[in-house]
Specification:
The complex is a heterodimer of chains A (110) and B (113). Chain A is mainly β and 110 residues long. In chain A, 0% of the residues lie in helices and 55% in strands. Chain B is globular. Classes of the chains: A mainly beta (110), B mainly beta (113).
């Protein structure tokens, strides 16, 4: 099992650009989520999904969209990047109480 | 709303000593609490889950306690090694009717050789 994979590893965007962060898991987990991690803030939930076709907002959803067309994939879309979205983004899937995190995407918005 | 607090200051200890990290929470009575390890540039990795009816849980050199009266969990690493240097996060499960986990900001541990 590859676990949870994320691409790209690093990305630099200009303000106003859009992009999609990819996330995939091969463990057949129903629950997936996206977090951002900023210094001193801890992990903050952006969006989550409890199964294919079902998504909901987390703590900090503004400026981000998600979709879940398959169990495996959960992409995160930045609609119009802003410097405040500079962060490290983690995708996670969950089985029972344990969350499995991807390696992260470090995003810089200039 | 529920809050979770970890000591944000780094903890430096000598190799071989026991490291003790603290996680406090408020406005919540969780059914369980989790601890994760995060290395620089990597995602968190699940370590232990302790349930509200468990006072203590062990896994190799790791020991976690859970005091629901104090609303506190302690995370111990015995016989610490430089390889234990990392940031350790505690996490609370979702409250009833939600799916949102809450993570602490983490405590950075450095084990000195």
């Amino acid at each position: 099992n590859a676990g949870v994979t994320q691409t790209p590893k690093f990305q630099v965007l200009k303000t106003g650009q859009s992009m999609t962060l990819q996330c995939a898991q091969d463990m057949n987990h129903e629950y997936m989520s996206w977090y951002r991690q900023d210094p001193g803030m801890g992990l903050r939930l952006i969006h989550y999904s409890v199964g294919a076709g079902i998504t909901d907002q987390g703590e900090v959803p503004n400026g981000y969209n998600v979709s879940r067309s398959t169990t495996e994939d959960f992409p995160l879309r930045l609609l119009s990047a802003a410097p405040s979205q500079t962060s490290v983004y983690f995708c996670a899937s969950r089985q029972g109480g344990e969350q499995f995190f991807g390696p992260g995407t470090r995003l810089t918005v200039l | 709303s529920q809050k979770i607090e970890q000591n944000s200051e780094a903890l430096n200890i000598q190799e071989g000593k026991t490291a003790t990290l603290t996680c406090n929470y408020t406005n919540y009575s969780p059914a369980y609490l989790q601890w994760y390890r995060q290395d620089p540039g990597r995602g968190p990795v699940f370590l232990l889950l302790i349930r509200e009816n468990e006072k203590e849980k062990r896994k190799e050199r790791l020991k976690v306690t859970f005091d629901t009266t104090l609303k506190q969990s302690l995370f111990h690493i015995t016989a610490s090694q430089p390889a234990d240097s990392a940031t350790y996060l505690c996490a609370l499960p979702p409250t009833s009717g939600t799916y949102k986990y809450i993570f602490g900001t983490g405590t950075r541990l450095k084990v000195l050789a």
